[in-house]
Write a structure and sequence with these properties.
Helix 5 packs parallel to helix 7. 39% of the residues lie in helices and 28% in strands. The protein is built from seven helices and eleven strands. The protein folds into two domains: 166 residues, Spore Coat Polysaccharide Biosynthesis Protein SpsA, Chain A (Alpha-Beta Complex), CATH 3.90.550.10; 79 residues, no CATH class. It is an alpha/beta fold. The longest helix is centred in the last third of the chain and has 28 residues.
Length: 251
């Protein structure tokens, strides 16, 4: 059973070497789908001789990832973002070939902010399907929060192996990206009723903050836990605020 690792990129020079270095020892195919990077991403990718590089204009994450999957020839696909990498536990799991007994595998993703691994809050149980038998599903969901939708008959393993995510370099970067994600998500909500949007604007951000910071003990991550809870509040608020704005200007 062969394995392909699929990665989409755009201006990922600060992350791509760590990502590719973590997987080159165990995969049969390394596929990078690039969206016309203007930094040194492709220069760094070219140093990994196994890698096949394709380019496609970026439209959205779902379409980009599904297209990348269509380029695979191997039996199984491991999908990574350029700012993710696998640790020794996941390397050993792949090398054991235990995954070939299943249609898909879920992993716990450890998210990092400025090198600090978040252990609590809204990222406490960040479980992702990232390995599956080719043809057993597709990327779906709402932009920008895509997920992998498996076929209903798929048998899935929850592995103890871990995937790591360099989510943000700083809290300022986290806030900037949250605003970008809020604007993307707002596009999906602008057709909702005014009552729904107003209620969501008032209730959902408060609930998101309380759930992450108190119920899921985000406060135990100290400085970064506070900022993560605060940014999740702001992103949730802005999502509905921008949706109301779009709705108002498109009367």
């Amino acid at each position: 059973m062969s394995l392909a690792v699929v990665i989409i990129t755009k201006n990922e020079e600060k992350n791509i070497v760590q990502c590719l270095s973590s997987i080159e020892s165990f995969c049969d195919e390394m596929i990078v789908l690039d969206s016309y990077s203007t930094d040194k991403t492709l220069e760094y990718v070219s140093k990994f001789s196994q890698t096949r590089v394709y380019q496609r204009e970026f439209d959205n994450y779902i379409a980009q990832k599904n297209y990348a999957n269509s380029l695979v020839q191997s039996d199984y696909i491991l999908s990574l973002d350029a700012d993710e990498y696998v640790d020794v536990s996941l390397q050993r799991f792949i090398q054991s070939r235990e995954y070939t007994k299943y249609d898909a595998v879920k992993f716990l993703r450890i998210n990092h902010i400025g090198g600090y691994a978040i252990k609590h809050g809204i990222w406490k149980r960040d479980i992702k399907i990232r390995l599956w038998k080719r043809g057993k599903g597709h990327w779906a969901g709402s932009i920008p929060h895509e997920h992998f939708a498996l076929d209903s008959d798929a048998n899935v393993l929850l592995s103890t192996a871990r995937l790591h995510h360099n989510a943000y370099s700083t809290c300022v970067e986290m806030l900037e990206k949250a605003d970008k994600y809020a604007k993307l998500a707002a596009q999906s909500y602008k057709t909702k009723s005014w009552i729904f949007l107003l209620k969501s604007l008032i209730v959902n951000p408060i609930f998101k903050f309380i759930k992450g910071y108190f119920f899921l003990q985000g406060f135990r991550d100290g400085y970064f836990g506070w900022h993560l809870a605060k940014v999740s509040f702001i992103e949730t608020f802005n999502k509905y605020f921008y949706a109301m704005n779009y709705k108002f200007h498109n009367k």
